[in-house]
Write a sequence for this structure.
């Protein structure tokens, strides 16, 4: 409803009220928060004066520490100090165990999902990430002096549905309103593109601590169109550290490392990598069981250690250019994102491949957070003349399991989102009332080689003869890249109900339980929060419908108008009460009564949009 | 839904793709969900559906085969994908020969020469069929529409061959 008015945020009820919004870069190694103040996007510093917060969380028996303090305890308290948790988001226990990575804490199987045993009991990656998000949001609201209306959180473009959902769940658990999950390369392009007024095709090469993304975008008059995206959601600077650790271990002659020395080796590896970004060779002391070893590594040796990893990223660039249908020489610029792009070998191989000097004028560690802040500012409605349009794509194909363990693709990768595609199914037995769908994500042909997203069980299908029922299943991917599935039996119009069993994620109920049991929300707080949510939604609905009436009441008959006006005044009255259930009922009622009006206005507005009229002239 | 109407472009096979692109962006600027981040839940859902429709419509009009199919669907002609068998033996022979050619590429001593040859043949046939398709659709007559449907079916084979050829080329390069 009120689609047109809200499309022009300047027309909202309180046009000049500046709303607080922030962009959060939830990174594997470091996280940042940024906001737009006086027209400029900047990262925010916490009370210790840092804007880069290590993505490390430590659970002690009676406290939770986040950031630098936690990181400092990594060696002394390895089991309770969790770093690089992003690599565990939306992942199964078995797949993490199958990786050849050494993680210095105790992983446990939480109903198929990976979780970590800590001094405060078992914590899953969503809970750990929520701690980081809450800390960053705190920094923002303290600096800005008020509660945040909403946040934009960035995710690697190559994150699959389970990883995106896990990120959104973490924000929910941290008590944040997510305006949008934004792909990291798109955020970086936004930061650069708006800065320089650049037009043409650009590549964004994003090598973070644990993920690699490559995106090819076309920039034209405020439109950021992602042509293709590719990458590896389990490849990053951490892997450079691990190959250096392997080398250190060879030098020390130790066959097995304790958790503590693994931590020590990892920190040393990071130091070596960082030093060799500017120095040609680096001398250091390696503590071993047999005493200290004095060693050195030069840049050439480091390059040969990490070359296979960097080559993997170049292969992905090649494939993504192909998918975009773009030749190397059409790429005007390469934007470098992520701390790992400081490694000289990375820069030189990328420059060589794209035949373009990489762009690093915005700090590669901050550029994503800055882009996210710009978009958060637009989405929250502070910038009424926003003329940017972000057209993103789905990074991995979505498909369904068919006979023989094969996958049939429903939505191919690099399709612009939002997207909806429908598929028809029929029953194969007389009187069949249920069926099961297995949704997968990936490019391979076999179910076993793709990532299982969820199993959907359709029930309440009206009983008919075999082949008689025509069930239309619609797969919809929203602007966040998140999938939802609806189903309807065509001849009867009956909506089949769907139970979703995420393969590597939490159900809505599980998230709700986590929120309830979380220490941050005592029962009273929880109820208050639910009430607040409904009050906010009620005022949104009221504003939207009122604005719609002001603009398009002529589309309604007298009786319809009266009914809507009554519902509105009822909604307004109730929205100030503290009866959560009654407010919700009033919202539902108003929505129900105005469904038809909303559809009519939508049709009307599409016609008008293309009649050469600007929407705000309507 | 009539996609031509949605974009306010003439319902014909020959389309100005630049104009289509401009109209598409104009619509997305108004209906992309990012415009509704602060809207009520129902409105946000509507916006996602609307933006998805617009994307789908653009996708269908941009590609010649999908555009032709949509045009035929609007005229009440459905392409029955697998049911109809081809009686055009010359076409079938040609397909078989091209398939053999593709199969030989990876074992050949000069694979790129074979790729060029296949590419040339496929492009030539595609061009010819697309021309025939355009004139059949322009006629806007029932029997010409049925002919158009046949041409679409044939074209699909060539598009598929072209895709396979691209995969073979990639395999060679990697």
């Amino acid at each position: 409803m009120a689609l047109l008015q809200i499309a022009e945020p300047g027309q909202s009820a309180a046009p000049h009220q500046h709303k607080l919004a922030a962009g959060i870069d939830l990174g594997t190694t470091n996280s940042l928060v940024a906001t737009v103040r006086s027209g400029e996007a900047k990262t925010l510093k916490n009370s210790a004066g840092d804007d880069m917060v290590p993505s490390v969380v430590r659970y002690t028996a009676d406290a939770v520490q986040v950031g630098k303090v936690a990181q400092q305890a990594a060696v002394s308290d390895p089991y309770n100090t969790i770093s690089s948790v992003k690599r565990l988001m939306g992942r199964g226990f078995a797949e993490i165990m199958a990786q050849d990575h050494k993680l210095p804490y105790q992983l446990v199987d939480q109903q198929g999902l990976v979780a970590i045993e800590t001094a405060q009991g078992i914590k899953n990656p969503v809970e750990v990430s929520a701690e980081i998000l809450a800390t960053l949001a705190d920094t923002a609201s303290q600096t800005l002096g008020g509660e945040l209306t909403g946040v934009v959180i960035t995710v690697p473009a190559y994150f699959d549905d389970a990883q995106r959902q896990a990120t959104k769940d973490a924000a929910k658990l941290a008590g944040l309103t997510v305006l949008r999950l934004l792909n990291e390369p798109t955020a970086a392009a936004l930061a650069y593109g708006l800065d320089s007024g650049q037009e043409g095709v650009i590549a964004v090469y994003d090598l973070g601590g644990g993920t690699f993304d490559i995106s090819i975008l076309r920039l034209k008059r405020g439109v950021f169109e992602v042509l293709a995206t590719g990458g590896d959601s389990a490849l990053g600077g951490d892997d450079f550290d691990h190959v250096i650790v392997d080398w250190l271990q060879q030098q020390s002659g130790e066959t097995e490392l304790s958790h503590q020395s693994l931590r020590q080796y990892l920190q040393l590896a990071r130091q070596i990598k960082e030093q060799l970004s500017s120095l040609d060779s680096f001398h250091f002391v390696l503590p071993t069981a047999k005493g200290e070893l004095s060693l050195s590594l030069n840049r050439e040796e480091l390059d040969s250690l990490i070359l296979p990893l960097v080559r993997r990223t170049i292969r992905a660039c090649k494939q993504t250019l192909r998918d975009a249908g773009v030749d190397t020489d059409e790429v005007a610029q390469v934007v470098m994102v992520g701390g790992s792009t400081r490694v000289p070998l990375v820069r030189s191989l990328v420059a060589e491949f794209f035949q373009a000097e990489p762009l690093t004028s915005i700090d590669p560690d901050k550029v994503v957070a800055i882009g996210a802040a710009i978009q958060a500012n637009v989405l929250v409605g502070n910038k009424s003349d926003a003329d940017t349009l972000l057209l993103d794509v789905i990074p991995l194909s979505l498909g369904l399991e068919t006979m023989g363990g094969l996958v049939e693709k429903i939505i191919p990768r690099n399709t612009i989102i939002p997207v909806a595609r429908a598929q028809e199914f029929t029953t194969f037995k007389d009187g069949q009332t249920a069926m099961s769908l297995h949704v997968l994500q990936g490019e391979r042909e076999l179910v076993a080689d793709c990532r299982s997203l969820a199993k959907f069980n359709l029930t309440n299908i009206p009983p008919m003869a075999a082949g008689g029922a025509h069930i239309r299943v619609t797969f919809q991917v929203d602007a966040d890249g998140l999938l939802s599935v609806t189903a309807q039996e065509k001849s009867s119009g009956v909506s089949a109900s769907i139970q979703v069993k995420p393969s590597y994620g939490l159900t809505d109920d599980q998230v709700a339980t986590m929120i309830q049991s979380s220490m941050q929300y005592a029962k009273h707080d929880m109820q208050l929060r639910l009430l607040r949510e409904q009050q906010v939604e009620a005022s949104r609905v009221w504003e939207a419908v009122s604005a719609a009436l002001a603009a398009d009441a002529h589309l309604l008959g007298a009786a319809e108008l009266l009914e809507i006006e009554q519902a509105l005044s009822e909604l307004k009255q109730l929205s100030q009460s503290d009866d959560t259930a009654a407010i919700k009922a009033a919202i539902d009622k108003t929505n129900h009564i105005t469904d038809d009006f909303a559809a009519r206005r939508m049709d009307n507005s599409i016609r008008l949009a293309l009649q050469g009229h600007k929407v705000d002239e309507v | 839904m009539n996609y031509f109407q949605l974009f306010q472009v003439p319902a014909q096979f020959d389309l100005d793709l630049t104009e289509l692109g401009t109209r598409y962006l104009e619509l997305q600027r108004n209906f992309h969900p990012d415009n509704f981040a602060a809207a009520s839940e129902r409105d946000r859902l509507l916006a996602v559906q609307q933006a998805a429709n617009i994307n789908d419509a653009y996708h269908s009009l941009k590609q010649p085969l999908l555009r032709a199919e949509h045009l035929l669907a609007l005229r009440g002609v459905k392409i029955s994908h697998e049911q109809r068998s081809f009686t055009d033996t010359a076409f079938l022979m040609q397909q078989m020969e091209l398939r053999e050619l593709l199969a030989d590429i990876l074992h050949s001593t000069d694979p790129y020469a074979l790729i060029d040859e296949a590419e040339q043949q496929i492009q030539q046939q595609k061009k010819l069929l697309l021309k025939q398709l355009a004139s059949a659709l322009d006629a806007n007559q029932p029997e010409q529409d049925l002919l158009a449907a046949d041409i679409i079916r044939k074209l699909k084979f060539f598009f598929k061959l072209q895709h396979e050829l691209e995969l073979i080329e990639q395999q060679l390069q990697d």
